[in-house]
Amino acid sequence: MVAMIDKLEAGQIVSRARFVKGTTWRSLADAIDKPVVWTTAALLGQHALTSDDAWRIGEILELGDDVVEAMQVQPYRGSGTQQIPTDPTIYRFYEALDVYGPALKELIHEEFGDGIMSAINFNVEIERREDPKGDRVVVTLDGKFLDYNW
Amino acid sequence: MVAMIDKLEAGQIVSRARFVKGTTWRSLADAIDKPVVWTTAALLGQHALTSDDAWRIGEILELGDDVVEAMQVQPYRGSGTQQIPTDPTIYRFYEALDVYGPALKELIHEEFGDGIMSAINFNVEIERREDPKGDRVVVTLDGKFLDYNW
Amino acid sequence: MVAMIDKLEAGQIVSRARFVKGTTWRSLADAIDKPVVWTTAALLGQHALTSDDAWRIGEILELGDDVVEAMQVQPYRGSGTQQIPTDPTIYRFYEALDVYGPALKELIHEEFGDGIMSAINFNVEIERREDPKGDRVVVTLDGKFLDYNW
Amino acid sequence: MVAMIDKLEAGQIVSRARFVKGTTWRSLADAIDKPVVWTTAALLGQHALTSDDAWRIGEILELGDDVVEAMQVQPYRGSGTQQIPTDPTIYRFYEALDVYGPALKELIHEEFGDGIMSAINFNVEIERREDPKGDRVVVTLDGKFLDYNW
Amino acid sequence: MVAMIDKLEAGQIVSRARFVKGTTWRSLADAIDKPVVWTTAALLGQHALTSDDAWRIGEILELGDDVVEAMQVQPYRGSGTQQIPTDPTIYRFYEALDVYGPALKELIHEEFGDGIMSAINFNVEIERREDPKGDRVVVTLDGKFLDYNW
Amino acid sequence: MVAMIDKLEAGQIVSRARFVKGTTWRSLADAIDKPVVWTTAALLGQHALTSDDAWRIGEILELGDDVVEAMQVQPYRGSGTQQIPTDPTIYRFYEALDVYGPALKELIHEEFGDGIMSAINFNVEIERREDPKGDRVVVTLDGKFLDYNW
Amino acid sequence: MVAMIDKLEAGQIVSRARFVKGTTWRSLADAIDKPVVWTTAALLGQHALTSDDAWRIGEILELGDDVVEAMQVQPYRGSGTQQIPTDPTIYRFYEALDVYGPALKELIHEEFGDGIMSAINFNVEIERREDPKGDRVVVTLDGKFLDYNW
Amino acid sequence: MVAMIDKLEAGQIVSRARFVKGTTWRSLADAIDKPVVWTTAALLGQHALTSDDAWRIGEILELGDDVVEAMQVQPYRGSGTQQIPTDPTIYRFYEALDVYGPALKELIHEEFGDGIMSAINFNVEIERREDPKGDRVVVTLDGKFLDYNW
Amino acid sequence: MVAMIDKLEAGQIVSRARFVKGTTWRSLADAIDKPVVWTTAALLGQHALTSDDAWRIGEILELGDDVVEAMQVQPYRGSGTQQIPTDPTIYRFYEALDVYGPALKELIHEEFGDGIMSAINFNVEIERREDPKGDRVVVTLDGKFLDYNW
Amino acid sequence: MVAMIDKLEAGQIVSRARFVKGTTWRSLADAIDKPVVWTTAALLGQHALTSDDAWRIGEILELGDDVVEAMQVQPYRGSGTQQIPTDPTIYRFYEALDVYGPALKELIHEEFGDGIMSAINFNVEIERREDPKGDRVVVTLDGKFLDYNW
């Protein structure tokens, strides 16, 4: 029987191997020709890679077969429990939602009617925008509108 | 002494008055010449309006003086407790963060070094992008990068 | 200004008025020509009714204008917090999900690939199936498959 | 003494072995002639298999004796704590219940009187329904009605 | 429109009226010819009374029409959230379950096979057993066995 | 130094050994001449066995010395946190308490005055009662009344 | 029908009336000839007073009849949920238990065998002990030992 | 580098070694000439022992060097999270506080003014008081009064 | 009897009256000659004012007698439950503690030995420090060291 | 592939090695010429060290390469969940915030306008201030003011 490792453990091993080798997430994304946020999320355990892509990453980072296999498995997504994390870099996104979430809801309904922005037919981009007063992080969430369609 | 009403109650009254009159959030934002996400958040109780802006909104929606006053008060921001809401339109944003939050963290650090995207020196925009396969909700989070600067 | 009442309070008033008059949910659904689960959920505060439908229900149940207005307002859906209710009739559904949820996930992925059953482009039906060993409640959840489509 | 492994660990091993061998849940269900949702749930640790069925599965997936034994043990069902999971494929079912649960309760009482849909004398089916606007996941919950019978 | 009162409020009013008049729960149960635990639970809001029984109790305790009506309404059972109460008289039952629950589970399975004791087709009795070392509270839980019957 | 194992681990080993050998809890209880609920609870880690009884059980189930030792240790009782478990066989008892707990409290006070049913000077019995409409699980909780005695 | 007030509200009214009149808890305890901790707890809603004692307190503090009545009602004890309070004067007791609770458990078992200190057949005293390095609060918890007596 | 073991693990090893050897906590306290509650708490991981005392205990119980070292380390005190434990012997203390905590607060303020009983400049004693109606556990909490001293 | 209002409600009334009159917290502190953080905390309900100070504040802000009385009452301090607030201005302090708390603990023990910084014999100051790169908030926590003194 | 260890484990190993060698945090800070609170927090896992600094610490404390590597990795900051710790030395800081947090918020807004004290562009110092009545712990939090700047 194959030795087992779950996707979150695999994600930690990838993350550490990447750090030790000095490889960037962006270069890993380029190597498999996928968007960078998607690739990073996938390697951290939130998406399944195709077999080819998993072996390609395994080769670059010299990962074991168990890690390569784990990358291809269908994920249980998210953190597992409905709790808000403490890391400040991540928390700021939650805080922004806590403050602006109801406003976004009102404006989605005003513009589109009753429904939601899909988090499945959905993508995220992140970029740096230079600014003389200090560069800015710009994150774009882009999801299909789904109307309540009984 | 003036009768008291808190900012969340004021937000509900504004929201209902707007519905009854058939006024849009966007037209309220135009009336006080502020961005629409900011204005909606402010009217729901997450920012303080200037006295002039509060009276202008009060006039348009025919609100009582207590509501107008509450709009000018400094807010206690957020929902009050660290809990994730159930409304599907709002929840999808939390789900997206739960899935992509750690990837965004990795990429902020890769691009900017150790630090965060500010949620204070920060703004949000929402727009509709037409798409033949179904229109899309596009939300842009734009915050200044702050580095850990001891 | 109009007196305010929220959708959950309106739902309780509808529910009680219906009880007092001996009207069924099914007859209310028929009166506005909508599916019965949708109508019941809407009247309990989980969907917005059109103005015509709201006035039609108001007439049948002799409801106040504030209740009729509240029925038309866009809902904040769900119970508000991510907690599991205690009522046995409702709890059994949660228990079934707790036991069979991971199996449903596996089988959705096996049949459709990576994605979800939409809870927005979605409907529910409930019917009674006669059975000599005791009649059965049959609930059908029917949602569009959405694939992870970056 | 026999080495010990619990049913959830056994479920993870089955799940991985199945992935590695490219076997479907459906073919495993066929091999033991049981419904597919029941079989998947059982192999994930929510039902006990008979000794024959456990050995049959063990043979197909080349599992160790400890896994085969664990499959036959009486389960502690559910996730262990009353918490709502984050995986989007599973979460959508919880969201649907949070929105439609009270309506289902009302309609069960309207049709059957005071009581519940059993989650024990109960089964679940899942099927794909083709639809030109996108195929649909159809899940049927079918449980005996039990009345409050003091 | 009738003034509204919910079943828990009605339960508190009944409880206080009973205290003021010096009436026992047992005599109320006798008045409507129902078991005493059932009656007490019903009057506290956990079961619906028939119209006749509700009016009979209303007469004895001189309750308002709103209370009498609330007694007849279908309940949302339980405390609403999955939390353990602090009152020592109630807590001891939870403590006993926390200590002996897994043992009861094992013995139900040993004696009956896989299944549960129904909490719906179920009744409870309480009695005093005299004992020279101090009288004892004897509570009997009696529920139909339901087997997992797919 | 002795190898260590805690009482809950010991309980799982006992439970598995019993399953593998096909021994019943009842026969284990008979072997040490103790009530069956007490014995089952004790072997699952909720009571301490005497040295003689522990060795007797160890002999029957061919357990290691570390397990036999753990059985004699004073327990930390309960599940450790004030949370309600999900296993349906156990949950039904909690649900019954949630629904009937306040009624039991009222009736204890009506019959005995202010005080509690002890969960320490306390025992539990479980038996099967045959019934043509389906056999019943009968659980009897029997505890000394303790009055608030300052 | 009598106006209703619950025991916690009654406790707040007593507390405030006492403050306004400048009466001490100790003098109230003396007036009804009961221990001071018991009396204070009772007046805050944790014990029932006899009718005579309730009227005596009502007379001293010039309380309404509804408050006097509420004092005589059987309490739901404790704070209602298993949460630790924040007030520093109360929190220190919880902290002491968190640190020394397991040690007290070990020593109770060493001295008395398996069992508990009753919190029902139980009393508490508080006194001031003068000390040149700063006076001390001395709290004595005194409860009957109850052994696990099946 | 030394093998590591934390203070709670060390506490479990001490506790088991003590059980196996039949040594009492009291005799361990005598061996290092410290109060018995302090010593038991310290050995369970809530205080640091001096090097001499740790080696003395290590000798008596024949503990490994890693355990002896862990005993000398500064503790993280308490259980780690603000949760109430389920063990009945410990829970009764929490219940007593839940019921009498507010009364103790009132009486501390009445006697000493605004402030707290320190849980740092603080000690606990436990003793057995013989009583013909059943012996009693007497626990004395003795802490310096600290006034709010800005 | 005086109408009742609790300290938190009184705090909200003070806060609003101050806003309406355009009075600063600092001027209120000066009026009663107390430190500004202490005064603000007291007026928000966390300390008791002397009768003179309460009447002085009442005069300045034209408050009702019930508010003035509530200011003099002994507080239940803190927010009531052990939960972390969402307001960003307050949350940043909690985040800083979550990140630096264990380091502060280590350094207190390194410098002072085993013990704590008192939060009772304790004060807080806040000041603005000008800085060309952006002014800074400087908060100083100053508490007496208390050693574990058994 | 390198053996993996996470930053919190690394922090525990550092902490223990430091204890065993009798090295102070202050001397470690001096060795890498960084502020002492920053260094202690970093070594406990809350900041990343440069490669040089990590190797310098590794040399002093004779740490393994895996520990040295872990020190350089970007942290997930904080304790991971939004829970308040129980250790008294740390808890006192949380208590102080619970009592004085809203006052600090009011005064930040009064002095600086709407915004926050940054916890990123932020530092902490701790010092001992001698005092004849008992030495004091003085902690200074110093963060840049950030205004809400849309």
Automatic annotation (TrEMBL), chains A, B, C, D, E, F, G, H, I, J:
Pfam families: Cyanate_lyase (PF02560), CYNS_N (PF21291). It is an enzyme of class 4 (lyase). Keywords: Lyase. HAMAP family: Cyanate_hydrat. The keyword Metal-binding does not apply. GO terms for molecular function: cyanate hydratase activity; DNA binding. The active site is at R92, E95, S118. Belongs to the cyanase family. Residues 79-150 form the Cyanate lyase C-terminal domain. NCBIfam families: cynS, PRK02866.1. This is Cyanate hydratase. Catalyzes the reaction of cyanate with bicarbonate to produce ammonia and carbon dioxide. Transmembrane segments: none annotated. It catalyses: cyanate + hydrogencarbonate + 3 H(+) = NH4(+) + 2 CO2. Its EC number is 4.2.1.104.
